[in-house]
């Protein structure tokens, strides 16, 4: 561990004191280090008071964040135009003569969509007719309200 080539005479007799470190001309010591800078007044240093970072900094985005927000804005505009350009539910039937063949039914009290599809399905499977009724009327589920008017598909 001890190197015989190094002797005590090689070491200086007295270790010189360290010069204190400074930050912007202010001497620093371990006890004076702080993560939050102390506010200064304009009278003490002849400069404007230090403002907290939250008061001076606005929203700062990286290039990735700008691309993300730009993409979201384009997506929102595209969805808005898509909603405006979407055809009404009755226009889902492309053929004009097929639209003339649609039958209109008013939902009665206690009546379900399945019962309406059963009544309309004379030659087809009830599940297929039910799917057509939902598609034509723009329904997401099978819930219908009494008095609601539904368009029924022609029985093919």
TrEMBL record:
Signal peptide: none annotated. The chain crosses the membrane at residues 68-86. Residues 104-153 form the LysM domain. The keyword Transmembrane applies. It comes from the Bacteria. InterPro entries: LysM (IPR018392), LysM_dom_sf (IPR036779). Keywords: Membrane, Transmembrane, Transmembrane helix. Residues 1-24 are annotated as: Disordered. This is LysM peptidoglycan-binding domain-containing protein.
């Amino acid at each position: 561990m001890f190197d015989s080539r190094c002797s005590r005479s090689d070491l200086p007799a007295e270790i010189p004191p360290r010069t204190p470190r400074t930050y912007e001309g202010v001497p620093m010591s371990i006890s004076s280090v702080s993560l939050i800078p102390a506010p200064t007044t304009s009278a003490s240093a002849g400069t404007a008071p230090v403002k907290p970072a939250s008061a001076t900094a606005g929203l700062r985005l990286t290039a990735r964040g700008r691309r993300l927000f730009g993409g979201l804005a384009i997506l929102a505009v595209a969805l808005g135009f898509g909603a405006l350009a979407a055809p009404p539910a009755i226009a889902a039937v492309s053929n004009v003569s097929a639209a003339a063949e649609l039958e209109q039914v008013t939902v009665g009290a206690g009546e379900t969509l399945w019962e309406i599809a059963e009544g309309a399905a004379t030659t087809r499977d009830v599940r297929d007719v039910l799917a057509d009724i939902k598609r034509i009327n723009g329904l997401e589920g099978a819930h219908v309200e009494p008095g609601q008017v539904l368009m029924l598909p022609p029985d093919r």
